[in-house]
């Protein structure tokens, strides 16, 4: 939904991004590293992610729960940013992983995250993926349907193992976020209806030998910026816990999911202390092990996407055409999402500027990063940074229009390293094969 509020100018954007600043001739600097230098060395489009920012945000989130004396196990939502280097940073910060596929499970293990610290969520786990999880004896599988429960129980018994599980509850709560990232309404595909849980819980704990049912999980949605939906969802979970215990059933763990939002534009996004407070007030006295699954809040502000202006086209509107496209960052095309855009050179005036549409080169009308945005004057060859691209950026990128995947660079402690080299067109074509029989017809 398009906002009617005026877009924030450069100064408010910088205020919301303390890891970014302008330093004279260096231009835009991220955690002490010149982004212009990175673009010059590695070309564009180019993803940049800061290990320093990622580490700082991880520790800030953990500190919010320590301040409430509320022990939690933190599992990073790998779907937000799955690069091995990023997972390694978070593993060093004591984070486990929340995975939603066998591939993400293998990534987490390869990054040094212990199997016991991995939670496997997701509506469509295949038999092979469930077997992989059982084989590695991961910490928890969040079961999302009765059908999955029976498949898992049978697979585990066949493997002579017992899988540790929780039921993902669909609490029928509207997260009040974008419809495409809301996951806790009755009509959404995720979880088991909350009113089915008590009978199913008893049947599972008393009759199924292939699974060890330890508790409940819930995830309401993503990019949530108010406490109301969190509170309603967790209150429903607390009520379920009381109902189950009144029936003599054991419950030791609650997985609170993720969803904490960030200020992409000018949202009043809450700090982690809000989430800690809500969890403490709704679930803190239940004598259970608590788990959280942050993703976007940690990773998004840690990354930017660098791009170069290909052309400035004057037509019915002024179009700034950049060399990054929706194949690189699909969120604006998919969700109409707003990303801040900053020039890499230091602007002469932080307030004045042209009203432009910033668009990519993809042959789709939806390949638009900004509409009627006030930006400092830009010309061919200038460099820009698209902000808050560290989550749901690289992981959703593609080679649409035969555009090779962009390079990815990590910075930290004054150092930098290419963590994914730019794909060449030859490498892209080498993945394809033409059948011999087609060549000889």
UniProtKB/TrEMBL annotation:
GO molecular function list: diaminopimelate decarboxylase activity
Pathway where it operates: Amino-acid biosynthesis; L-lysine biosynthesis via DAP pathway; L-lysine from DL-2,6-diaminopimelate: step 1/1
Enzyme class: lyase
Cofactor entry: pyridoxal 5'-phosphate
Keyword tRNA-binding: no
InterPro entries: Ala_racemase/Decarboxylase_C, DAP_deCOOHase_LysA, De-COase2_N, Orn/DAP/Arg_de-COase, PLP-binding_barrel
Modified residues (N6-(pyridoxal phosphate)lysine): 79
EC number: 4.1.1.20
Pfam families: Orn_Arg_deC_N
Stretches assigned to the Orn/DAP/Arg decarboxylase 2 N-terminal domain: 53-300
Keywords: Amino-acid biosynthesis, Decarboxylase, Lyase, Lysine biosynthesis, Pyridoxal phosphate
Transmembrane is among the record's keywords: no
Family statement: Belongs to the Orn/Lys/Arg decarboxylase class-II family. LysA subfamily.
Role description: Specifically catalyzes the decarboxylation of meso-diaminopimelate (meso-DAP) to L-lysine.
PANTHER family given in the database record: DIAMINOPIMELATE DECARBOXYLASE, GROUP IV DECARBOXYLASE
SUBUNIT field: Homodimer.
Name of the protein described by the UniProt record: Diaminopimelate decarboxylase
Protein source organism: Bombella pluederhausensis
Taxonomic lineage from the root: Bacteria, Pseudomonadati, Pseudomonadota, Alphaproteobacteria, Acetobacterales
């Amino acid at each position: 939904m398009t906002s009617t509020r005026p877009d924030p100018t450069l100064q408010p954007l910088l205020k919301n991004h303390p890891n970014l600043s302008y330093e004279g001739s260096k231009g835009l600097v991220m955690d002490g590293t010149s982004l212009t230098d990175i673009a010059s060395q590695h070309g564009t489009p180019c993803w940049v992610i800061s290990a320093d920012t990622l580490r700082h945000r991880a520790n800030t989130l953990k500190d919010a729960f320590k301040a409430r004396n509320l022990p939690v196990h933190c599992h990073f939502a790998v779907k937000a940013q799955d690069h091995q280097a990023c997972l390694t940073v978070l593993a060093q910060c004591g984070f486990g992983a929340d995975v939603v596929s066998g591939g993400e499970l293998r990534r987490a293990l390869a990054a040094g995250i212990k199997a016991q610290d991995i939670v496997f969520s997701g509506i469509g786990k295949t038999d092979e993926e469930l077997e992989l999880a059982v084989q590695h004896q991961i910490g928890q599988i969040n079961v999302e349907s009765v059908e999955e429960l029976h498949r898992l129980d049978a697979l585990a018994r066949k493997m002579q193992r017992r899988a540790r599980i929780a039921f993902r509850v669909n609490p029928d709560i509207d997260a009040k976020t974008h419809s495409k990232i809301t996951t806790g309404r009755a009509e959404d595909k995720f979880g088991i209806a909350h009113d089915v849980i008590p009978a199913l819980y008893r049947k599972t704990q008393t009759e199924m030998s292939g699974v060890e049912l330890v508790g409940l999980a819930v995830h309401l949605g993503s990019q949530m910026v108010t406490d109301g939906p969190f509170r309603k969802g967790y209150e429903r979970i607390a009520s379920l816990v009381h109902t189950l215990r009144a029936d003599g059933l054991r419950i030791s763990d609650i997985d609170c999911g993720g969803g904490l939002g960030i200020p992409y534009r000018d949202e009043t996004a809450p700090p982690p202390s809000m989430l800690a407070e809500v969890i403490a007030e709704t679930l803190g006295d239940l004598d259970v092990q608590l788990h959280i699954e942050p993703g976007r809040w940690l990773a998004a502000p840690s990354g930017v996407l660098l791009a170069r202006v290909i052309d400035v086209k004057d037509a019915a509107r002024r179009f700034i055409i950049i060399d990054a496209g929706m194949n690189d960052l699909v969120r604006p095309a998919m969700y109409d999402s707003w990303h801040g855009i900053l020039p890499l050179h230091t602007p002469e005036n932080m307030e004045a500027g042209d009203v432009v549409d910033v668009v990519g080169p993809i042959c789709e009308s939806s390949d638009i990063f900004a509409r009627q945005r006030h930006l400092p004057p830009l010309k061919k060859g200038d460099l820009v940074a698209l902000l808050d691209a560290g989550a749901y950026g690289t992981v959703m990128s593609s080679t649409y229009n035969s555009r090779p995947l962009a390079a990815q660079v990590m910075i930290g402690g004054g150092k930098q390293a290419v963590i994914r080299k730019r794909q060449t067109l030859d490498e892209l074509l080498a993945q394809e094969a033409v059948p011999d029989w087609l060549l000889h017809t």
